[in-house]
Design brief:
A 5-stranded mixed beta sheet has the order 2-1-3-4-5. The protein has helices at residues 16-20, 43-51, 63-66, 70-82, 100-133, 150-160, 166-173, 177-189; strands at 2-8, 29-34, 57-60, 86-89, 94-95. It is 51% helix and 12% strand. By secondary structure, the protein is α/β, with parallel strands linked by helices. Helix 6 packs antiparallel against helix 7 (166-173). The protein is elongated and about 75 Å long. The chain has 2 domains: 2-114, Resolvase, N-terminal catalytic domain (Rossmann fold, 3-Layer(aba) Sandwich), CATH 3.40.50.1390; 150-189.
Length: 190
């Protein structure tokens, strides 16, 4: 059986980029995790580990999708190899047949681990700078504050005076009704 394993770090991320790499393979079953790669405690990975059988092939878009820790990568590949399962790392162009994969896994896995550490460090530094300098310096956490236009204020008055409906108001400023009500709520708080 040909199986794909996909992983994105957060539920907001989309796995479609990874799915494109499987276009040239007949995939019988997919396992997709939306979780960090810092450890192996992932629901779909755990399920995959229980369900694979001897002779199965696991296709992974890249090493970092399986894990971002060299020790975890080694343990996972050994576990699957002992079960008679071959893992194919498509981006890097190798699989777990033979012994050369151990060398490649160690080198490329170390790079994936280092990438994760750099990402974590940069996020932490960005948050510290934003806290230190505040949002005035251009460093901010989260969505930037919205400035409502004069046009909004003009139509807001018409809406309050019941000259236009909420639907018309939203169309006039080019937003959905849900967004309009968010704007109104923000405007009232000012």
């Amino acid at each position: 059986m040909n199986i794909s394993y996909e992983r994105v770090s957060t539920i907001k991320q989309d796995e479609r980029r990874q799915e494109l790499s499987f276009d040239n393979y007949k995939i019988d079953k997919k396992y997709i995790d939306k979780a960090t790669g810092k450890n192996t405690d992932r629901p779909q990975l755990n399920k995959l580990m229980l369900e694979v059988r001897k002779g199965d092939n696991i296709y992974v878009e890249s090493i970092s999708r399986l894990g971002r820790n060299v020790d975890d990568l080694r343990n996972l590949t050994e576990y699957f190899k002992e079960k008679g399962v071959t893992i194919h790392f498509l981006k890097e162009g190798f699989n777990t047949n033979g012994n050369m994969y151990k060398f490649l896994l160690t080198i490329l896995g170390a790079v994936a681990e280092m990438e994760r550490e750099i990402i974590v460090e940069r996020v932490r530094e960005g948050i510290e700078k934003a806290k230190k300098f505040g949002t005035k310096s251009g460093l901010s956490i989260g969505r930037p504050e919205r400035t409502l236009t004069k046009e909004f204020e003009k139509y807001y008055k018409k809406w309050k005076d019941k000259e236009i409906t909420a639907i018309e108001f939203a169309k006039l400023i080019g937003v959905s009704r849900a967004t309009l009500y968010r704007y109104i709520k923000e405007y009232k708080r000012r």
